[in-house]
Every structure is written in structure tokens, then in C-alpha cells.
Design goal:
Number of strands: 0
Number of domains: 1
Mean pLDDT: 80
Shape: globular
Keywords: Membrane, Transmembrane, Transmembrane helix
Strand content: under 5%
Order of helices and strands: HHHHHHH
Largest sheet: none
Structural class: mainly alpha
InterPro entries: CodB (IPR030191)
């Protein structure tokens, strides 16, 4: 293990574990979001049936839940270590440095893409045209992206408990909106 006694290198104590309600809210908040809403609508616009999209989302999310529940969660609860600490324990500090750099770049790109997709759903409220080029053609869309990004960053900074509480409130009506919009 790392010689540094950092939070990430310490096993998670049992009193820090969250319950199934928090998991369900966090999972639903992440996966029943504007991205699925917008991408599902795009599939329908391209000729895929709405029922096919819903069945695909249900099947895909079922497989994701089973993977998390049957593969990831047992490993996590047995080791009670973060992925970084576990990887460092297995592969050494050089690997964790490389992994951190690559993972950081990928998360930046992914976060930017997901925020932009979510902003694509919000843009409709402001009457902004589709932004389908490499660069935005409407400055208001840039402002919407910055606004959505600010909310995402604010919630991330508040920490997991606040984010889970936010998801517990938002996830049920997001699911309802998703189903009603079909």
C-alpha cells in the first residue's frame, strides 16, 4: 500500500456505508437523466420505435444493476477500499499515476459531453435551435451549458450525501417525466 495515510487508502468503515435507498436514488439519478431522455428521443427521431428504446433502457439498466450488485458490490464490500487504493495495492504506484492521468482526461471529456447533452434538453425551454455542428452557433446555448455545468459542479462539491439527497428528490419525478414524454 501507499506510504501516505490518505483517506483513499483506508478501508471504508462500516458506519460510513449507505443504505439501499441511497444507492437506488444515486443510481436512478445518474441513469434516468437528461442524457437518456435526449438520446432516447434521438433514436426515436431516427426511426427506432419508442417501445424499443424503453425495452432497451430497461434491459440495459437491469444488466447494469445486476453487474453492480453481483460483481462490483461484492468486491467493494469485501475489500472496503477505493478503486485507486486497490489498484495501487495490486499494480504499484506507477500504475496508479498513469491510471489517474488517463482517467482524469477521460472524466473531463465525458463530463463535458454529458453536460452538453443535458444542456441540449434544457435548450428547448429557451427556444434555442439544435446545436449539431462542431461548435455552438448560438451564444445562449453556451450560457445554458455553463449553467447546467455549474449545477453539476455545485452538487459534486457538496459531497456524496448531498448528491444522494438531491437524487432521492429528483429521481422519482425524472422517471415520471421520462415515461410521460414518450
Amino acid at each position: 500500500m501507499s506510504s501516505a495515510e490518505e483517506f483513499e487508502t483506508q478501508p471504508v468503515s462500516p458506519q460510513k456505508l449507505q443504505g439501499p435507498k441511497t444507492f437506488a436514488a444515486s443510481y436512478a439519478g445518474e441513469h434516468v437523466a437528461g442524457t437518456e431522455f435526449v438520446i432516447g428521443a434521438l433514436f426515436v427521431a431516427w426511426g427506432v420505435g419508442a417501445v424499443d428504446v424503453l425495452v432497451g433502457l430497461l434491459f440495459g439498466n437491469l444488466l447494469a444493476v445486476l453487474t453492480w450488485g453481483l460483481v462490483t458490490a461484492p468486491i467493494a464490500t469485501d475489500t472496503r477500499l477505493t478503486l485507486y487504493a486497490y489498484l495501487e495495492k495490486i499494480a504499484g504506484p506507477g500504475t496508479i499515476k498513469l491510471y489517474s492521468v488517463v482517467n482524469g482526461i477521460l472524466f473531463c471529456v465525458l463530463a463535458g459531453a454529458m453536460i452538453t447533452v443535458s444542456a441540449s434538453a434544457v435548450r428547448i425551454l429557451f427556444g434555442i435551435e439544435d446545436q449539431v455542428g462542431y461548435f455552438p452557433t448560438d451564444f445562449r446555448f453556451v450560457l445554458v451549458v455553463l449553467g447546467v455545468g455549474a449545477v453539476v459542479v455545485y452538487m459534486a462539491v457538496k459531497g456524496f450525501k448531498k448528491l444522494a439527497a438531491f437524487a432521492e428528490v429528483c429521481a422519482p419525478w425524472m422517471i415520471l417525466m421520462f415515461l410521460l414524454a414518450r
